Amino acid sequence: MPTIKDIAELANVSPATVSRVLNNSGYVSSAARKRVIEAIEKTNYVPSEHAKSLRTKKTQVIGVVMPRLSTETSSRVVHGIDKVLSAKGYQILLATSDLSPEKEIDQLRLLQSKQVEGIIFLATNVSENLQKELSELETPLVALGQDLPGVSTVLYDDYHAACDVVDWFLAKGHTKIGFIGVSAHDEAVGRKRRNGYQAQMNEAALPVEKSWMQEASFDIESGYEATRRMFKESTTTPTAIFAVTDRLAVGAMEYIKQAGMSIPEDVALAGIGASEIGKYVTPPLATVDYANEEAGMKATNLLLDHISNGDNSHKKFVMPYGLLARDSLG
Amino acid sequence: MPTIKDIAELANVSPATVSRVLNNSGYVSSAARKRVIEAIEKTNYVPSEHAKSLRTKKTQVIGVVMPRLSTETSSRVVHGIDKVLSAKGYQILLATSDLSPEKEIDQLRLLQSKQVEGIIFLATNVSENLQKELSELETPLVALGQDLPGVSTVLYDDYHAACDVVDWFLAKGHTKIGFIGVSAHDEAVGRKRRNGYQAQMNEAALPVEKSWMQEASFDIESGYEATRRMFKESTTTPTAIFAVTDRLAVGAMEYIKQAGMSIPEDVALAGIGASEIGKYVTPPLATVDYANEEAGMKATNLLLDHISNGDNSHKKFVMPYGLLARDSLG
DNA sequence: CTGTTAGCGCGTTCAT
DNA sequence: ATGAACGCGCTAACAG
User: Fold this and answer.
1) Which has more pLDDT, A161 or A312?
2) Which site from A81, A268, A278, B129 is most exposed, i.e. has the minimal number of CB atoms within 10 Å?
3) How far is the C-alpha of A45 from the C-alpha of A1, rounded, in Å?
């Protein structure tokens, strides 16, 4: 690996001059510039970003920490992030947390040590430890999807989205509405969506059998199982089911079909997420479009503002969502 | 941001001693170690990886270049990569190429300048320029999915997989088999899968109407359009269609259903990729499981070997694939 | 227009 | 067991 010094010698100039042509800074005679460029091409020289960063304190790298990258939601968000970042010459340093709270903190530290200029953080919890870590973090950070106090956040409107889904069913005259949720450790997906469901059922003065509320994890299979339990345990069975994610809803759909019932005649169904899969199942799944890509872009722009303006205010931004009423609704 | 010097002063020792406790190297009295650790915790000190890398030439970062990250295939591969990398303390620096050949080369250079210790490269073409760039690259690299000469590669068995898909149809007695492919610029997906199709049709001495072979891009909509064209342009219509990706096949499925035909009675269907969506459409889509995650892991392990052993041999590894015969086959 | 000097934060001899 | 000095590769003053 040649260094700036090597090519300086080759071109018969000082390292400073090489640096000047590299960064288009200051004056340099066209003769010298030419020799430098030739030397660079001949040696296949690539400047060391580390040395550069050490001096300039700039890395052109943004850290992204997320639970897992094999989900459609994650991909969309990262795609949105990448879209605005790559346009500005930034790169993404990826860090996955595997749904582990400790790993989230570890990754935050690691990214900081790599001197990333900013962090976009898709958290899955809002624990004390995490908040403490966040408050001590020097690197600009914006959280996406979870409402972490003390930092800028881009949020989905989980509560109202859930309310609207329930309203869909209510408008169709359903009174027995089941719910498939996830752990309340996940503030956004687990708690807020459940709150929306319960609030809406309450307001409509509709009783909810305990068995109508099932907890699942995040995969299709788990949605299937939750639905099976729901039908097995309930004395009167629901005529509609709200699953907090599309994958869960698809699992529910599988069970319902397999049990010989039809959708939406016997059971109506809706999810959240606008995953592609929901569009092509039969019947198409009613769902809520969270605009993940836009959320990623929004978060990135917010972060970039913080970085360039040194703007330390904590902004909260709630993404608008779109209702996709489809045949599974009835 | 505190530096090693700051905490050295705070602990009343020299920077060298701090470095020693940081890296568990050499002797350091437990008294000194204790003071150092306290200073670190008090100041929230995080060592600069840049300065460290500058000295040690190690970055613990692997670059990953891929066309786009919003596809299921990409996510699976990256997940596989991340799985083995994170276990060894490496991180991923992401670089997307947007299907642009020039951008692929740019990204390669950029990663090199960031001193990544190795690169995993999901190319979409095998152009001269690219091969030249690759031959000049100092950083260890393994390509995944495309057969680039002169570098280690992990490949899918596109040709034989395509043959097997056609065989499925042949075994069911189909003689009029349509094909939906993509641009031949993509050596693996575009050319090899097409070759497999043609070879198998040839061997079975089956004629192929020109209109039976359609070219699409990579999205569902495009599969829909290709199918529409196929049925519109052909004098005798196919009774089976092989789409080179599952998404294309799902698009085909949409068209066929919408045109009032049924699957597999009127038209049988198969794709490649084992995407989740194929499992839940009606009827379930027959497809080929490429084990993307395992491929990512394999490529990463290969790369890690190269890095640690300085092993510069060029290995080729062909991933085994699995046939998922499902109802769309008939 | 160009070279010299200094120092970014760290790990590493070499003394002590 | 510990510190002083040096250098990794680069950019930013400051001279000239």
Assistant:
1) A161
2) B129
3) 7
